Amino acid sequence: MRMYDIIMKKRNGGELTGEEIGFFVDGYTKGEIPDYQVSALMMAVYFRKMTERETLALTMAMAHSGDMLDLSGIDGIKVDKHSTGGVGDKTSLVLTPMAAACGIPVAKMSGRGLGHTGGTIDKLESFPGFSTDLTTEQFIRNVNRIGIAIMGQTADLAPADKKLYALRDVTATVDNLSLIASSIMSKKLAAGADAIVLDVKTGSGAFMKEEADARALAEEMVRLGNDAGRTTVAVISDMDQPLGYAVGNALEVKEAIETLKGNGPEDLVELCMALGSQMLIAGGKAADTEEATGKLQAVIRDGSALRKLAEFVEAQGGDPGAVYDPGLLPKAPVIHEVKSPAEGYISHIACDEVGICSLLLGGGRETKDSTIDLSVGIVLCKKVGAYVKRGDTLAVIHADHESKLAEVEKRYLNACAITSAEPARAPFIREIIGRQ
Ligand code: URA
């Protein structure tokens, strides 16, 4: 088999066989096929697209390009959750202890990630001492003992995707539905769970800005997961403004703790209930949404979800005291209130711009080597639909230095539209695909 022929076949609109896809994935992972040939193939895929059969073959080949995590040592149905990412997305911090408190074994691999704030691992590192540096044995032992463990993604999880994603990133071939879906699902399949619940966002702060694109991605990922033998569901939700109020690592942890105490923001609670219900149904802990919702509400009410977070933090070396006293989390030295320049309704908050505010404060990574300040960020006080008077506080900036304030304040004010007419609101949860 020759890479040249594979490129030409795709360039001319042909359908690649499973063998041809396996050949290029394997050869590229081993360094036997050069970047320039794979770049040409990716561009051909970009223009010619992939059929469902090709996309599944690519997903499976990438999933099997490294270790396939064996979670058979964990009792019960393992349910994983994945988010396509957004601004203020602290869902995993709330949802995983809730699901674990309901008896779902949570064995999760997470990343640090580039972007506006850190990934779930960075956020968890706000707990002094917390580490995700676990061996596979410790990981499995912790899940069996307390029902939850999170470890960093190992280098050998879907290494083909790692190489391919980095190449697509510099060759303008990221935004192809088959390539995105296979990239995400190859990692999820390799991470070993029996069922996968996907949190797909849409709107200005999401990877998929248009709802139709988010739906197409969700449908493709659900199909791939089910074809690979894992029960898969996707919840599509709004990311046209930040989720909850807090954006920034320790600030989001604090909001997650409040949510586990029953004082969460409406949108975050709604999302955790929707995703959590699907996790409980997929994990055989509830027959339907009504039963699942009841169980999820009960673990908030009786404090067991909050206690589960504390147990989990302690099991991974962190200070569980910070769960009960969030004052022990990292705190920024400079606090500044952003005041409204006008009276009216908040009709829009450019979500990606709020993310950039957090990045400018030092709360996210611009490159994978950037260091991150866990204490900084921005806490919104008014969200879309709120009526504000001139001089009301719109948001509070948490910064490491006063020199950062002027630029971030200006950016935040530009991101907020205030109008005299009340804005129309779309439902927060747009759709559930593959619902059981
Ligand atoms: N996230 C991924 O993991 N892969 C993509 O291709 C796009 C987003």
Verbal overview:
Helices cover 45% and strands 15% of the residues. It is of the alpha/beta class. The chain has 3 domains: 3-48, Transferase, Pyrimidine Nucleoside Phosphorylase, Chain A, domain 3 (Up-down Bundle), CATH 1.20.970; 79-325, Nucleoside phosphorylase/phosphoribosyltransferase catalytic domain (Pyrimidine Nucleoside Phosphorylase, Chain A, domain 2), CATH 3.40.1030.10; 330-419, Alpha-Beta Complex (Aldehyde Oxidoreductase, domain 3), CATH 3.90.1170.30. Helix 2 packs parallel to helix 4 (52-63). The protein is globular, with a radius of gyration of 22 Å. Uracil binds at residues 165, 174, 179-180, 183-184, 207. Uracil is lined by residues 165, 174, 179-180, 183-184, 207.
Fill in the keyword field for this structure.
Aldehyde Oxidoreductase, domain 3; alpha/beta; binds uracil; Transferase, Pyrimidine Nucleoside Phosphorylase, Chain A, domain 3; four-stranded mixed sheet; globular; four-stranded antiparallel sheet; 3 domains; 436 residues; Pyrimidine Nucleoside Phosphorylase, Chain A, domain 2
